[in-house]
Amino acid sequence: MRGVFITLEGADGCGKSTQASLIADALEASGREVVRLREPGGTPISEKVRALLLDPANDEMVPECELMLYEASRAQLTRQVIEPALARGAVVLCDRYYDSTYAYQAGGRALDDALVRRANLLGSCGVVPDRTLVFDLEPAVAYARATAGGADRMEAEGLAFQERVRDAYLRLAAEEPSRVRVIDASGERDEVAARALAALEGLL
Alpha-carbon distance 144 to 141, whole Å? Predict the structure, then answer.
């Protein structure tokens, strides 16, 4: 039986990485094998691409180069890890996937919407998440959290960039309500986790 593919999304500082741990723990406690991943990354090749993408020294990187690097990292992760895990029936829990590319490169960078969607189809190898949780938090609050200890190359783009990212996520949720669920990321972490797990009911 094919496994279940769950992706976690949201602007920097929304708390999704913390929630990934809590959700993984809850799913493992139910007896499921959980493969927890992050994007970009998750394979030796993809982690090298991640280092290029997030290094603040690479501030000359143009949006088109950035887009293709994200897709290259994703294709490697999908073929090498995600597809085999789903084939053996595991729950794949991925911190970011192609919706991040839509939000950051089409929304934040203002690349052509159709171009980014076509690139996502290639980078994902056609693999679509069964459920996507978008952790939504007021951009100013999320941005302050994300940059409290310094900023990577994407975080350094500033608050207005993060606001465009959030708007793109909300557009996606409106377009695909059966797959994409918006989770209120304000409040205590256990409260947020309860909302997230409720949004997964019926899927597992």
Answer: 5
For 4-198, which CATH class?
Answer: alpha beta
Measured between alpha carbons, how far is 182 from 135 in angstroms, rounded to an integer?
6
Give domain limits for the chain: 4-198
Amino acid letter for position 48: K
Query: Do residues 200 and 26 lie in contact, with contact meaning Cβ atoms separated by under 8 Å?
Result: no
Predicted TM-score (pTM) of the model is: 0.95
Token match 């993408």: residue?
Answer: 53
At 19-78, the pLDDT tens digits run 999 999 999 999 999 999 999 999 999 999 999 999 999 999 999 999 999 999 999 999
Q: Are 39 and 96 in contact (CB under 8 A)?
A: yes
Helix (H) or strand (E) holding 6: strand 4-9
